[in-house]
Amino acid sequence: MNLVLHYITVPLLDKEYRHGDEVDVWFTEANREWSARGMIVSSHSSPPTLVIRNRVLVGEPEDDYYLYRIIPIAMITRVELIPFG
């Protein structure tokens, strides 16, 4: 996977992923920077997963780009958790 996730914001002080958490992410893919909105999804039968519902090129209009991607949490590296508030 040619994707480096630079940061993900999780609205929890204990910095644990929980089902339904809304997150903002910023990542590099194919040498371009993207910002995105996502959600943590988990179930008893699968590990926690980050679902990115959309993405936009940093500095570009939001409507121009759309992506639906599912990323297992275990595949995410180089992440800095930043609690809201």
What's the short story on this structure?
The chain contains no helices and six strands.
Explain what this protein looks like in three dimensions.
- This protein has about 80 residues and is an all-beta fold.
- The chain has one domain (about 5-80).
- The protein is built from no helices and six strands.
- Strands 5-4-3-2-1-6 form a six-stranded mixed beta sheet, with no helix packed on it.
- A hairpin with a 2-residue loop joins strand 2 (about 20-30) and strand 3.
- The chain starts with a strand and ends with a strand.
- Strand element count: 6
Q: Would you identify the regions where 5 or more consecutive residues have pLDDT less than 50? A: 78-85
Strand content: over 45%
Largest sheet: 6 strands, mixed
Rounded to an integer in angstroms, the radius of gyration calculated over CA atoms is 13 Å
What is the count of distinct domains? Answer: 1
What are the secondary-structure elements, in order, as H or E?
EEEEEE
Q: Provide the structure class.
A: mainly beta
The overall pLDDT, averaged over residues, is: 62
Helicity range: under 10%
> What is the overall shape?
elongated
Number of helices: 0
Termini separation comes to 32 Å
Q: Enumerate the strands of the largest sheet in spatial order, edge to edge or round the barrel.
A: 5-4-3-2-1-6
Keywords: Plasmid
